[in-house]
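ping. complex inputs:
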Amino acid sequence: MAETPPPTTPTRVTYDYVTRTIARTLSTPSRGYFLLLGAAVALLAIGIVTLLYLLRYGLGLAGYSHPVYWAVFITCFVFWVGIAHSGTLISAILFLFRSGWRTAVYRTAEAMTVFAVMTAGLFPLIHIGRQWYFYWLIPYPNERGLWPNFKSPLIWDEFAIGTYFTVSTVFLIMGLIPDIAAVRDLATGWRKKLYALTSIGWTGSNEQWRHYSRGYLYLAALATPLVLSVHSVVSWDFAMALVPGWHATIFAPYFVAGAIYSGCGMVITLLTPIRTLFGLEEIITVKHFENLAKLCLLTGSIVGYAYVCEYFMAWYSGNPTERAAFWYRAFGPYWWASWTMIICNGFLPLLLWVKKIRTNITALFVISIFVNIGMWFERYVIIVVSLAGEPFTKWANAVYNPTWADWGIMAGSFGWFFMWFLLFVKNFPAVSISEVKEVLPPPRSKPSKVHV
Amino acid sequence: MMALPKPLHDLFRPPPTPGVLAVFSHLDTTLAAIKRLRAAGHTDFTVYSPIPRHEIEDALGQPVSPVRAFTLVGGIAGCAIGAWITLWMSADWPIVVGGKPVGSIPPYVVIMFEMTILFGALSTILGILFNSLFAARRLGTILYDPRFTNDRFGIFVPAGSDKVAKVESLLREAGAEEVRRG
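pong. complex structure:
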C-alpha cells in the first residue's frame, strides 16, 4: 500500500491520534446534526407524499407531454448515478495508482457512492408508474415463457446498475471491517455490541491482513473497469436510440467524464461541512481539497471539450436534423438550461487553474454546488431538450414543463440521500482509520534510513 | 459473549490455545522479534498489526494469498453464466429485434462483462471470509489485546508449559513492552 506520506502530514498526527480523532466523530450527536437529519427526513416526507399522489392519480401529475416521456425522473436518475461515480474512482482507481491522499477522503466518497446508487435506483421505479411490477425487469422463469430482451440497453442498464450497487456496497463494507474493529476496541455500551457484531471477529492478525489485502486489491481491480462501464451503459440508453442529440458515439466517454466531474463536486460539498463539524482539519487537509479540485478541473475540461465536439460534429456532419437539434438546444425555448450547463460545466472549472481558488475551501464549496447544478442541467438538456426538439415530431407542438410532482420527487431524493449519509457518518467511521495510518510513518524505536 | 448452538460453537469458538502474547510499540522491534522467532524454529505464531505492512509480510515470508484463485474462478464463472443466460433465453423465446440474429454476441458482451465483475467480486469476498475462517480454525482461540487495532503491534506464540519461559525471554529481548501468558 502507499508508502510515502503526503508532505502536509503534521507530525503530531500519530496512530493513536488518528484512531481517537476518527472515533470521536461517532460521539453523541450535536443539535446541529439533528437539525440536518430532520431537514433530510422532512424532504424525504415531501417525496413520499408526492409518490402517494402519483400512485393515486397516475403519472399524469408529472409534466410528461408528447414527445417528452423521459423527463425529470430520468434526469434525476442519470444525475444520481453520475454522483455515484467519483466514489469508486477515488476508492478503486486511485488505490491502484497508489495515491496516498485518497486514504483520508475515500470512505466518504464510497459511502456517497452507495447511497447515490440507492437514490438513483428509485427513479426508474417511480418512472415505470407501477412499482409493484418492477420484478418484470429481472429474468425469471414465468408462466408465459417470456424472457427480457437482452439487445435492449435498458436491460444492460439494469445489469450494470445492479452490479454496481452490489460491488460498491461490498467494497464499502470490506473497507469498513478493520475500522469497525478499531472503534469496537474503544467503544462502550450498545455501540460495543453493534461493532463487535459488524466487525465479524477482526483482530488484525497477519492471516487476516494477508487475505484481506489481496482481496481488496482484486476488488479494486474489478471495480475499476466497472465504474467506467456503468456510466457508459447509462449513456447507451440514449446513444443507442436515433433521437438527434442522443445518437452519438462520444456519449460513453463524455458521460463517464461528466459523472466523475459531478461526483468530485459532490465529494467537496459533503466533505466541507463534515471536516469542520467533526474537527478533522488535520486529517482532511487543504491538500486533499486541492487534489479533488484538480480532478474536477481535469474531468470538467473533458466535459467542456465534449460540448465543443458535439456542436462541431452537428455542424460538420452536414446532417440538417442534427444541426436543427443543436440549434434548438442553444437558441430554442430551453436556451436558459443549455447556457446554465455550458457556463457551470464548461467555464466554471477553468477557475480551478488558479491555485488561490483551488486552495480556498469556501470558494471550492461554492463552485462544487454550481458543478452539481450544472451537471443536473446537463442531463436535463440531453434528455428533455433533445426529445422536445425532435424535428420529426414538431407537429405535436406540446410544451414541456416540469410540475410540482417532479420537484417533489426530486426533493425527496435529496432527503433520502442525505438521510442515509448522515446516519452513516454518525454510526460508522466516516474516514478510514487503518488506511490513514498507512500513509503515516510507522512508530520505530530508532530512526530508519531505509523506509519512511 | 453470546451463547451459540453446539455445531456453530465448535466452528466459531475453537478451544483456547496456550501460549505467550507480546505487545510491541514499534514496528522495528516487532520485525526483530519475528526474525528471532523464525530463527528459533517457530512457524505458527500470529502477528497483529493495526495496518498491513509489507515489512511484516516479508519478515514472515508467507505465500501469496489463495484469494486470487477465488477471484479468477468467480470471474470466469460469471462470464460463462452471462453468456449462457443471454444466449439460452434468446433461443428459448426467439424473437427478431432490429433485424439482428436471435443470438447476437455484441450486445450480450455487456451482460457477460457485468456478470464477470459481479461474480468475481462476490467470490473474492467469499475467498477472504473462507481463508480467514480456516486460518482462525487452525490457530484456535488465541490471546488478543484491544490496542492492536490502535497503535500497538503484537505477537502471539503458541507454546506448551515446557517452552513458555524460553519464548517469553526471546520476546522480551527483542523489545516487547509487555509479555503475558494465556
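Chain A has 15 helices and no strands.
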